[in-house]
Design goal:
heterodimer; A: 270 residues; two-stranded antiparallel sheet; globular; B: Rossmann fold; six-stranded parallel sheet
């Protein structure tokens, strides 16, 4: 089974608090905040490794693909250390400022190139559904649309049998079961599994695995199809969400606070 | 001479209250009171029981009606349909809007969370002016239900043209066995286990964060929510702690947006990805033993106490 995993490097979600907006430029300042593999990308990689192991690890391949600045290369090394066989990093100034439409278009273009180079098609492309930074839940579905493959996102359970992909997702009130045919693109959620840790042996092996870096030109795309220029959404101002509540202190003791809370509830007529 | 036409707005109705909320918001932005020149025409595409036809029918309706704006609830289905349509119509999708408005220059502006809600950003979809639809998704509960005594369905009936996919499928206008290209087919539905009382319609929400510290305290919090006749909710961190919080009771960018009359938060730090889900609450009360907790800036009332002590005191008072 041939599986490609889309990996998104993101600023460490644990350090979100430290992200500031620069008043003068209106840009996000995230200096000193390390990049990590997005949590749900890890789940996607784990799901891919498990499926490959189930169908015969030797006869399967798991590739990782990311679009990110070249500094994010070590995130792909980490993916290789977790168990991926090969990794591809799309890195070019032309990709900068891409929205999900342009990002997915670029990723799809790279998928075509990998498949052409390798002479096979991926049975499955896996990705996280919602990244910790953008969180749009768009990229898995949009990559599938560019490639004209079947898609599903928000998947919390996944299985493949004889070319049929069975996926379960939670809707607001029910559990829904879905079926689709390979080749398919699946966006997973963090409930699907518990990603494995990177081992020392994994890190040593990773050094010998192929990691390819491609520019826009190398995958056959260019400025007006990618990056900010190729994006149908354009960013405007960025600001901190308004809170604007008084924060009036209640009670001197837990008991007094409890009494005041009940009073507030009664005053609201509840 | 160029004649003025109506502006068409397509709203996807998946059978939950979000369609009426979207309509209410659209009416606020484009309706008579908004002072905009063009008269809006609202088209509701209703697919409440025809999940497998929804994407294809959205696709077809956009092709035929050429709406200027497509509003979709960010639900399990909507979150998948919207980005697919974005690629098909070569247009932008604004995900999980916390506001839709006209900015000072009169441009249609979508306000979306960024960095897990740490910041919010305005985005524009300029292609919408050139005949492409702008697409936006909104979480259920982000905008209020339309005011007035009318039920959601009556409100829709009074204000909109409805394309009823359910009815079309039932009376054979859509051939049996039709399916949506591109999307997986739904083959089974079963009720969710451990479904908590809905936090979406609760007047009182008692919410627990990681600061509760243990499953015991979470259980006390649930008991308190019950006694108050409200619903228990949690943050992402509390959910991940594994105390048995229900996932559908999670509030925030990765969970739900709520608008209770009273929200009481215990042991919640106040990361923006949680607080952006409670901005619609009438009154916010927060208890946290960290006097510098960010949640206090988003609260009407604050108490710098240990969460468990206040929960115990409340349970004692109620008796």
């Amino acid at each position: 089974m041939n599986i490609l995993v889309l990996i998104k490097p993101v600023p460490d979600p644990e350090r979100e608090k430290d992200i500031r907006i620069d008043e003068a430029s209106g840009r996000l300042v995230r200096d000193g905040i390390p990049m990590v593999i997005d949590p749900e990308s890890r789940n996607a990689l784990e799901a891919a490794l498990q499926l490959a192991e189930k169908s015969g690890r030797e006869q399967s391949c798991v590739f990782a693909l990311a679009m990110a600045p070249e500094q994010a290369k070590d995130k792909l090394v980490e993916a290789l250390a977790m168990g991926a066989d090969e990794a591809y990093l799309l890195s070019d100034k032309a990709f900068g400022g891409a929205d999900t439409y342009a990002t997915s278009r670029t990723l799809a273009q790279a998928v075509r190139k990998i498949e052409e180079d390798k002479g096979f098609a991926f049975d499955l492309i896996l990705a996280g559904t919602s990244s910790s930074d953008g969180g749009t839940s768009h990229v898995a579905v949009q990559t599938a649309e560019w490639l004209k493959r079947t898609h599903i996102s928000n998947v919390c359970s996944l299985d493949v049998n004889g070319g049929t992909v069975t996926a379960i997702k939670r809707s607001e009130e029910v559990m829904l079961t879905f079926e689709g045919e390979e080749p398919a693109v699946v966006g997973v959620t963090r409930d699907i599994n518990k990603p494995r840790f990177v081992t020392a042996v994994g890190i040593i092996k990773a050094r010998k695995k192929p990691l390819t870096i491609w520019s826009a030109e190398e995958i056959g795309t260019c400025g007006d199809l990618t990056g900010l220029e190729g994006s149908p959404t354009k960013p405007g101002r960025l600001f901190e969400p308004e809170q604007g509540r008084a924060g009036e202190a209640i009670g001197d003791t837990p008991e007094a606070a409890a009494a005041e809370i009940l009073q507030i509830i009664r005053k609201a007529g509840l | 001479m160029k004649t003025e036409t109506v502006r068409k707005i397509l709203i996807f109705d998946q059978g939950d209250p979000v369609a009426a909320q979207l309509l209410g918001k659209a009416e606020e932005v484009f309706g008579e009171g908004s002072g905009r020149g063009l008269r809006p025409e609202y088209i509701i595409l209703r697919a409440r029981r025809t999940y497998n036809l929804a994407l294809e029918m959205l696709d077809k309706t956009i092709r035929e009606e050429k709406p200027e704006l497509v509003l979709i609830g960010a639900t399990a289905l909507g979150e998948e349909a919207a980005p697919a349509l974005g690629v098909r119509f070569e247009t932008g999708v604004a995900a999980h809007c916390v506001d839709i408005k006209e900015n000072e220059e009169g441009r249609l502006t979508f306000v979306i969370p960024a960095f897990g809600g740490r910041a919010v950003g305005e985005i524009f979809i300029p292609g919408a002016a050139a005949g492409k639809p702008a697409i936006a998704t909104v979480k259920p509960g982000m905008f209020p239900d339309p005011a007035g005594g009318e039920s959601a369905d009556e409100y829709v009936a009074a204000h909109c043209r409805v394309i009823d996919v359910d009815a079309m499928a039932e009376d054979g206008r859509i051939p049996k066995g039709s399916k949506t290209q591109g999307a997986f087919r739904m083959t089974g539905v079963r009720p969710r286990e451990h479904l908590s009382g809905s936090i979406t319609n609760a007047d009182i929400i008692v919410c627990g964060g990681y600061g509760l510290g243990s499953e015991d305290v979470w259980n006390k919090l649930k008991q308190l929510a019950d006694r108050l006749g409200g619903a228990a909710a949690c943050t992402r961190a509390a959910l991940d702690a594994g105390w048995g919080c229900a996932e559908d009771s999670m509030i925030g960018t990765s969970g739900r947006a709520v608008r209770p009359k009273i929200y009481i938060g215990f042991g919640i730090s106040g990361a923006a990805h949680h607080t952006c889900g409670i901005t619609g609450a009438d009154t916010i009360i927060s208890i946290n033993n960290d006097k510098d907790a960010e949640i206090f800036a988003a609260s009407d009332y604050k108490g710098v106490f240990d969460a468990e002590q206040v929960i115990d005191a409340l349970l004692g008072e109620i008796g």
